[in-house]
């Protein structure tokens, strides 16, 4: 799925197509020791757990947390698609630095594994983390329209 998104998505859609497919719960469940040793990752795990159980969070990411909570209360069976389409933007709009940091790491790994910067539709001369910053800013700007 990731390879198809990277190679077939136009530059202006590749970021959204990728991040709206991230399943952070699945990613978090697989990171184990690395996550427990990373304060940003640890907070993200606690946040996801609290939200899933209907508990209060510490509120470090208020817009993101409120949006996810609303998705959970509206229709729990559609929570992942709701979060992807309505809430992901708050990971990149300055509301939640820990989320953006984790996403940048994931994106950078995907970028390197799939040589994103050299893809013909992307053609980026900089680094993967810089591509992330540029594309995430564009993603937020489009979502805010």
Quaternary arrangement of the chains shown? single chain
Q: Summarize the main sheet.
A: none
**Helix content, binned percent:** over 70%
Stretches where pLDDT is under 50 for at least 5 consecutive residues are none
Distance between the termini: 28 Å
Count of discrete domains: 1
Mean pLDDT rating: 83
Tally of helical segments: 9
Order of helices and strands: HHHHHHHHH
Structural class: mainly alpha
Overall geometry:
globular
Query: What share of residues are in beta strands?
Result: under 5%
What gyration radius follows from the Cα positions, in whole Å? 15 Å
Number of strands: 0
How would you describe the overall organization of this protein?
- InterPro entries: DUF5332.
- This is CRE-DCT-5 protein.
- It holds the Pfam family DUF5332.
- This protein is mostly helical and 145 residues long.
- The protein has one domain.
- It has helices at residues 2-8, 11-19, 24-36, 39-52, 62-74, 79-87, 89-92, 97-113, 128-143.
- The protein is globular and about 45 Å long.
- The mean pLDDT is 83.
